[in-house]
TrEMBL record:
CDD domains: GMPK. ATP binds at G4, P5, A6, G7, V8, G9, K10, G11. Its EC number is 2.7.4.8. This is Guanylate kinase.
Length: 185
C-alpha cells in the first residue's frame, strides 16, 4: 500500500517505478468524483454514480471505502486485488490514510500480508507548493487538503516504511526495492 498526503507525488513516484517495472499491477479504485482532464474510466478510476457506489459497498464488493473531504467516495474493489496477490503479481494500492487503515484491518481478516509505505514531503511548505502548483483543485479544496495533510503527516509512524520524496528518482528507487523485496523479485 502506498499512502501520503495529496500533492506529495505518490502518483509521480509510482509512475516512475511502473515505467521501469511494468509487471507491477496498480489497483484501480472506484470513485464518485468527476474525471479530471485525460483520465479514462477503468484505467485511472472506475467512475460511477453515488448510487452505484453505495450499492456495491452494501454488497461488500470493496476492500475499503472512504468519503474523502465530503466531496467524493473512493473504494478499492476487493476481487482483483486478491486475484493478483494469489498469483504473486507485485500489487500496489495507492490509497489515502483512511483507506490504508481499513485495508490493514480487512487484510488481517482475509489472511493477506500487506506492506505499508508512506510517501512524505521534504517539508510542509514544499507540499503546499506542489499541491497548489498542480492546479487541479479550487482554493477551498486546496485548503481542506492541506488541513488534512497535517493530520496525515502526523500518522506516518503507523506505516512500515516512510520514503521522503525530495528527488523523484531516489524515492522511486526506494519504492522499487521495497516491492522487489516484498514479492521476492
Amino acid at each position: 500500500m502506498l499512502c501520503g498526503p495529496a500533492g506529495v507525488g505518490k502518483g509521480t513516484v509510482l509512475g516512475r517505478v511502473r515505467a521501469q517495472h511494468p509487471e507491477i499491477w496498480l489497483s484501480v479504485s472506484a470513485t464518485t468524483r468527476q474525471p479530471r482532464p485525460g483520465e479514462v474510466d477503468g484505467v485511472n478510476y472506475y467512475f460511477m454514480s453515488e448510487r452505484e457506489f453505495l450499492d456495491r459497498e452494501a454488497r461488500g464488493e470493496f476492500l475499503e471505502t472512504a468519503d474523502v473531504f465530503g466531496l467524493a467516495h473512493y473504494g478499492t474493489p476487493i476481487q482483483p486485488v486478491v486475484e493478483h496477490l494469489e498469483q504473486n503479481v507485485p500489487t500496489v494500492l495507492e490509497i489515502d490514510i483512511q483507506g490504508a487503515r481499513r485495508v490493514k484491518e480487512r487484510a488481517e481478516e482475509l489472511g493477506l500480508d500487506v506492506m505499508t509505505v508512506f510517501i512524505a514531503p521534504p517539508s510542509f511548505e514544499e507540499l503546499k507548493r506542489r499541491l497548489i502548483g498542480r492546479g487541479t483543485e479550487t482554493a477551498e479544496q486546496q485548503a481542506k487538503r492541506l488541513e488534512t495533510a497535517k493530520i496525515e503527516l502526523a500518522a506516518e509512524s503507523e506505516f512500515d516504511v516512510v520514503i521522503v520524496n525530495e528527488v523523484v528518482e531516489d524515492a522511486a528507487a526506494q519504492l522499487w526495492n521495497i516491492i522487489a523485496t516484498e514479492f521476492g523479485l
